[in-house]
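Two entries, shown back to back:
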Amino acid sequence: MPDKREERLAADAKDLHQFGYAQQLLRDMGGFANFAVSFTVISILTGAITLFGTGISMGGPIVNGVGWPLVTFFTLLVAASMAEIASKIPTAGAMYHWSSLIGGPGWGWYTAWFNLVGLVATIAGIDFAIATFAADLLGLQGQTWLLIIYAGLLISHGLINHYGVHLVALFNDVSVWYHIGVTLTVCIAFFFFAPRQPLSFAFTARYSTTHYPFAWAFLLGLLQAQWTLTGYDASAHITEETLDPRRNASWGMFNAVWISGVFGYLLVLAVTLAIQDIPAAAAASNPFIFIAEKALGPSFGRGLTWAILPAMWFCGLSSVTTSARMIFAFSRDKGLPGNKWWAKVDAKHRTPVNAIWLAVGLALLVAFYAKGFTVITSLSVIGLYVSYVTPVALALRARFQNKWTDLGPWNLGRWGAVINAGAVLWTIFITVLFVSPPNEVTGYTFAGLLVVLTVYYLARVRGRFQGPRKLGTEEELMRLERALAG
């Protein structure tokens, strides 16, 4: 008799067949592993630490004391709205499929492209951050060294995603406990072994190096928390590799945000209260390293910083995993130029190998284009959140039309419309915020992207692109699965 795992695999494959897709990817992740991917991509030790200087320069300690929980609350509205849709549509296409099935193929096509830009910029931001920290710690100066380290990191992530699908899953599991362990270590070190400001310091102290009014500078400083709390769509992109995805992917997404929000808040408070000289910290080339060395001593401070880098590396690894799955799903539906190539699955490793290397190559190009870390992170936030909220807005419209009623096992019930509306309004707010001065390059980039995409859509895509495509009949899907299984 088949065991429970085999029964679960068969049920999940049959569920996937309803959407017209074969079980091509290896379904081997449980609920914890699914959560682990999103938690790793969020990576509070990457976003909060890397952009710590941005928060201090824009608004000072109050950006962490007040801004972090503010961003966490509204991000939870977005995550909950997405989790509800993921429970109803558990496919690797995630937001692209959601928008297509709720609003039509045109909506799905635009969603896919914005999601792709956001995901690739996220990889670039993470690995660029690691390269910057590593270069500072090693005393390597100059753009050449930075790019060499950056390229090496991208290649390492590509190779492991290509050849080590089981290793990726293992690293994700390890990453959760590593993130929690290092976060607690940093908190204990700063709370108990460093000079500490009173708690009120994090809620009242203000500082800005900009010429903008303080209220505007404070809002710009929210980029630190908002960029950190991105990437949780990873749980949705790996639904076809997750057991019981209608529940596990939704909980993975939601839990990753609130747990990251709580541990992230402890982290930023611990570091913020250790600041003794705000102007000096804000002016430092690497504010976190400066604060750590001043508060804990050069050796302990630098050692703690070195301990953070593996967490960042785990984050970059999972980001490549997520991006490759999105590229694979979009190409499978003939949405990308050269789609047959990008939709190829390696029969031996059961990974979308060409999609993996496309994600790595595009991330390398982003770093050359953006030429600035805040531009990269702004591109990431706007690209991802526009793709996040588009299907949510479409679902909200469907609610008002009484068409959004047959929901999955993870749903928001009678609070759905209110939570969806809050998610949409918050995303509109941060989109306007992060394309405004001094982030005009981000605004110009997305305006140009929208024009190019629209011209391309009208000329080549409209009327031809069908959105999510069924790969065959039940028998044809099973035949494809048997061929992959060898």
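entry 2 starts here
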Amino acid sequence: MNPLKKLFKQTAIYGLATVLPRMLSFILVPIYTAVMAPGAYGVVTKIFAWFAIFNVVLAYGMETGFFRFYSKEDNKDTVVSTSLISILGSTTLFVLIAFLFQTGIANLLNIDEGYIVYVLFIIGLDALVLIPFAWLRANERPVKYAIVKISNVAINLGLNIFFLIVLPEIVETNPDSAFGALYKADFQIAYIFIANLIASGITLLLMLPVYLKSKYVFDLELWKRMIKYAAPVLIAGIAYTINEVFDRILLGELLPENIADSEIGKYSACYKLALFMTLFATAFRMGIEPFFFSHAGTDNPQKAYAQITNYFVILGSVILLAVVVFADVLKVLFVRDEAYWDAMNIVPLIVLASFFLGIYHNLSVWYKVTDKTRYGAFISVFGAIITIGINLAFIPAFGYVASAIATVLAYGSMMLLSYYLGKSRYPVPYNLRKIVFYLGISILFSAIAFYGFGRSLFAGIPLLLIFLALVYKLENDKLRQIFLKK
């Protein structure tokens, strides 16, 4: 099979594993915004920001390290068992210590102590499935990967609907119902974390076969090499997570206490409208990451890498413009309470930032296949410095608008820096003229539709149709070669 066609086929399945669960998760946004005020949703978002940071710490780059060594080592079973033992041991140790100091941790993170136990259990369970999921991807088993991922979020979604909508209605209409024992008033935030905890526990059960099949041989020398490879990935992961979620935490610290949670809630709800770009970029990345490593030793892999990036930019440019044009339609569908709509002006910025991040992931091939992951850490730290600096300087005056601008500048800088550093260290023949052309036209049309014509569909839809016609005119033959050629 044409390797590019195989890539897009796997990307489609991984996309199903990513898009459907996140689309199900996206349904939670109208639910949350319907049953919670912006302030309560802000609390949830802030805690999930800490989730993201701790998930990266507990993974410490082992997932990427696993991919690298699984593809190059002869004894793959030893790579699996060493990785499993490492994650299992570190996660258990972390959770035990955290339980001993949970009060201090809650105070340090500015989280209600009542939620900290949920946080510790969830991040522990999520860490334990990292290597099993990586094993599925490395062995090109995207269907099982998709089934487990979709099951996780379906359970999470079902429990959220039950706890937040169905249970209160049952108790209200039938106070003597047996379900009354499960219901507590003003318990929405805790219900959300209980749903996450149950879903994470079931996911671990579904992935247990990978643990049960392992021979549990720990190769210390291999582990040291994996940790050495993974350490820069950890630094990059922390920096990346800072770029992704730390603005919520800084908003909570830098805005007046009486409005902070509410502003975080508005910002986070409208931020979700960039999900369509995030889904596309994530699905694409999950397809290309194994592809990068498996084709690194072939003749002229750089040509394939360049083609992949070209098509990512073309498809991403269409998504950017489409989301911006239909932003007001999406807000009615997904952000039900008008109290959240004050933050709609950040949507184009966040969608563009997500696009820049997707391009950056495509450009990152040069340091991953050459084992120069320290450059990935350097680039991500550079972005994190921009994120933190702009947020610290401008949140007090401009609020979440400063956070949105910081996100665009951080990811844009990372994209450009990765291209500049990779140009001399692992040259890839990117078609810069094409990339800049499509990206520039998409940004221009988006700005005209959203800011120039006040988000009018009468202006936005014609611009989108013109852009689609342009893509069809210029790329029709090449896209046919990828998807139709055997």
